[in-house]
Amino acid sequence: MANSSYYPPIPANKNFADFVPNMTGIPLLSKNESVQPWKGAIQHSKVALNAHTDALIAAGTCGGPVATNPGTFWYEQITHNGISPFINDGASWPVFRNVKTNYGAAGDGTTDDSGAIQNAILAGIDGITRDQNKLGTTGQPAVVYIPSGVYVLSKPLQLYVGTVLMGDPLNPPTFKAAAGFNGNTMIYGKDPNQQSATTVFYVAVKNLVFDSTNIDKDTTFTIIDWSVSQATQLTNCVFNMPSYSSGHTGISMPEGGSGTYLGDLQINGGVVGIDMSNQQYMIKGVTFQFCTTAIKLSHCFDCIIQDCTFQDHSVAIDMTSNSVGSLVILDSSAQDVGTMVATVITGNGGSSLILENVQNNGAGSAQTVMASGNSSPILSGNVADTWVMGNTYTSGGPSTGSYAGGATFTTARSSNLLQNGKYFTISPPTYQQYALDQFINIKSVDGFPVYGDGVTDDTANINSIISTYAGCKIIFFPQGTYLVTNTIFVPAGSRLVGEAWSAISAVGSNFYNPTSPVPMVKVGNPGDIGVAQISDILFTVADVLQGCQLLEINLAASNPGDVGLWNSHFRVGGAAGSKVETNCAGSPADCKAAFGLIHLTATSSAYIEDMWGWTADHDLDGGNGQNIATGRGILIESSSASNGGRGTWLVGTAFEHNTLYQYNFHNAKDVYAGMQQSETPYWQGPGFASDVLDPAPWAPALVTPYGDPDYSNCGGADAQCRMAWFEYISSSTNLFLYASGFWTFFNGNDLTNCNNDAACQTNAIDIKDSSGVYMYGVNTKSSLNMVTGDNGLLVTMNNNPGGWGGVVAAMLAED
Q1: 172 exposed, middle or buried (CB, 10 Å; 0-12, 13-18, 19+)?
Q2: 436-812: which CATH architecture?
Q3: Which CATH superfamily is domain 140-386 in?
Q4: Which of 3-7, 94-98, 108-112, 700-704 has the lowest mean pLDDT?
Q5: Is 139 buried (19+), middle (13-18) or exposed (0-12) by CB count in 10 A?
Q6: Where is the Rhamnogalacturonase A/B/Epimerase-like pectate lyase domain (predicted)?
Q7: What is the dihedral of CA 111, 152, 72, 476, to 10 degrees?
């Protein structure tokens, strides 16, 4: 392919700085300095469970949980004793806020509830409200709970970081815009407190119905401004807008962001369902009806649409903006649409388009792909296999690749990953089918005190409670920080539910040895099969712990989705409650803060959705420097050959700033990944000391047994080569990897030279001794070599210009 200087412009209402990470957080000015977990967790002795519970378990009558489909949502009824440990008077912080019982909202379809709901969102402590910029990013968790009803809004609602806006899923409440609504946006998801969209984390909206039908259909109106980034959740919501509207938009991102995932939504009416203007995104399981345009890609370097349904649109997906790197459309269908995908032809990497298992039905010509300026469609009808427009690299093809204007490839999907002919997906569990008596609040078990206060060692009692109630009850972790000094074991039968990202945090000498790492949380033992589900929980460290593997999963699922994590994340440094935040401004060699984030062992089979594995590049709660050397991101060794023929799914994930790699597929088999987003550590590359060139400061690399890259492909002093692999693939087969966004922003913490076309990092992806590797929609920024590997495989940014630097539509290493 010929070289080209084609780079899509930044949208007119933005500039390059909007897409550059913001290096400051919200200051935590009301900090409880007495809570310092790294100084040693307080030990408490456990006592026996009460006699009634002992007898119950002994009699074997605790089997469950048992679904009885109650009329009241368990979360509304359970004891709410969550706290915010690291702010002053944090034991009194109001985590749970019922807008009716605590703040006077009526929900009667007539009363203006705007003020009551906003008061619930704003409520703070000791005269400090959440809009005063004093509580940090992580110090102000709030679940604003909306019971069933119709809540009339006359003015916008403003959310803040740490907010979970949650409705009752049994009978989802409705937010209805009043006819005289004062403004043009119903809900602002972006925190206005000195935040750019790229640092708005930890916000969730779920189990709600939004209705804008009282507003004139031709008035410019947006239901939710979702200018947010990672660790955010928008799920199980319905958007109702006027039909034949020329003004209403369901979800918009006018200030950009660095998002990962949204899904399981229904969007009806409006001129645009989702107006996407973000660095990258996965949209999964959304049903669109009667929108003029269902999805408008105003800007997206790397997007994937999976398992979505489009009905009665003029255009289902509009990607004609010239601001798209690649778009993957997977396992989706359209019915009665004028054009399924409207696009542009670039002749290079920009605006790459991949369709796989796509149905387009209806009267007329069934225009599946129509390009601007063309009088006839590029593609009509259904796509049974994989259709590609963009630069392609195939086994046996030319080493420089070739541009496909619409070529069909065979993707040999593994049956272990499929359900009803599609890649398996599942919605986040709400456990709404279970009554309150099927739940245990881990802080309310008689005789087994658990504190979650960031001071007490909760290890023994958490383990006792989980082991006692596994296969019996669902265990609720109220908001707090649960210090652990040894491994928390999660056996088959466990279901754990957090609240506004309840934190499990490691501390102590058991996690010191980097040659014999110890898991902080271990799910099952090798060979175990069963159920283990984790939702809304954060995994972190309270100290510099080079021998801490934060999460290890060994368990294989009885059925797809039985072992799963939803809206659960990792954070190393960058926040109050950890010595890493304050002691890691110098050499990364002095801050090997964790061995690794997550390890999916060979015997595991898990479904992971909406996960951010973040080693901090900046301080969320202040301005401390963060040169942190977490060893590893996600190590995937899951193999159907070792787990009884089961698959593994990564749906909407991001791993950033880890030292050796972000994603490592080692001896893996039958793995699906949709949306992988990464950034290298900002301190890596030219400009930093030679003692931290990869694999340092983790040398020697643990090639056995952890599959570490040893960087033997690099010269000893080659700083741009010795930077973290985004994706390292070795001895693996049947990998199906869609929509990758791998970004390099800095060299040695210096942004100056890392523009779109700069080569600030030598290599991005490596494939060795592997077969059946299907990669669609590969996007990189500032990496010279996009893909390297066996037999001289070399895919360069220069040969594949587009997006934010380089784009490859299809990279097929089948042999």
Answers
A1: middle
A2: 3 Solenoid (2.160)
A3: Single-stranded right-handed beta-helix, Pectin lyase-like (2.160.20.10)
A4: 3-7
A5: buried
A6: 96-317, 444-504
A7: -120
